[in-house]
Amino acid sequence: MSQGVAGTQQGLWVASLGLVLLLSLVWWSWWASSRPNSVDVGLVTWVTSAAIVGSSEIHAAELFMDDHPDGPIRVIPVDDQWMPERTTQAIEEAMAEGMHYFIATHPSNCAEASLHLFADGRALMLNAASTSPLLSGRDDFFLRLTPDAHHEQRAIAREVARWPGRRLLVFQDTGNRAYTDPAFATFVSELTALSDWDIVHRPLQVSDFRPDEDRPLMAEPFDALYILAGSYLPAIGNIAQLFYVNHPEAPILLTPWARSPAILDTAGPAITRLILPSQHPSRKDDPLLDAYFQRLSARFGYQPHDMTINTRRALELLNQAFAAGHDTPATVKHYLLSQGPHATSLGPVLFDEFGDLEALPFVFLTDLARELR
């Protein structure tokens, strides 16, 4: 397929998805205004991106509402555009309109910017994606459904320490340093303690990746590549493909925040060398997870990224708390932290005393064509 044709088709797909999202938001507005005695839950994400980011979470919420037509929750999109300066404003505006419960899928820098809004119990946040250690161990109203960067990166370093090889290239995204700076420090510390890998560090803004600038570095002898980047950036696939051209047998390690078909599509033949750490099991080993993704794909016509998993789990947790009679951020928080593990349709959730996730071991997925198609 020529680049022009591919670009045209991609543009049409993005435009179509944007129209679908617009129609979804119109329907939500009508649905929200027609349900009495309901509880507003703000879904904080990049609503206007017209891409898999944002649309996946919104469609996960739509599917949840299809499954719970008589439940108390009505989900209201809160568009923060995944920009820290916008996040606080968007949440404050929603709180001013009387919203007390939020689910967020934004990066760590956005979570850090808005953390102070969840200090006093005016509102409760269930965060599905932000791993910054600055969010950990705090007695506040910010709960998290994903392990922090320390836990994540120690698990990844232990995996790399098992590999043969000596020279490792690490591309670190500078677009979300709230995640990648502590992640890189923990990874290096753990890997250095466990092995003799020689780490070559290349910081860059992945969203602005320019192949010609890194082609000479990629041509050097390396035994593996680690792309320390998240936010489901499609350019992660471009970096992987350029490295693969020079090192077709070397493993290419991603972060859990690269589990997206868009990255798969841009990786090209490098897909055969990609390794994806995951806090969730392979969907091919988990019938419930596989059925969930199949339902989403059949309902909305595309393969969403895995943020839909924690979005669904967060909605189910709030639904359980409301059904049990808890009707304030304080009582919902107490219910979620004092009970558990909480059963959801996509696996159990157990919080520690601070509302951080009691994490299960990571798995490392190697057949991503099978996993993400």
Automatic annotation (TrEMBL):
| Taxonomy, superkingdom | Bacteria
Gene3D superfamilies given in the database record: 3.40.50.2300
The regions listed as transmembrane in this protein's record are 12-31
- Domain called Leucine-binding protein: residue spans: 40-336
This protein's UniProt keywords: Membrane, Signal, Transmembrane, Transmembrane helix
What the record says about family reads: Belongs to the leucine-binding protein family.
- What is the protein name for this chain? ABC transporter substrate-binding protein
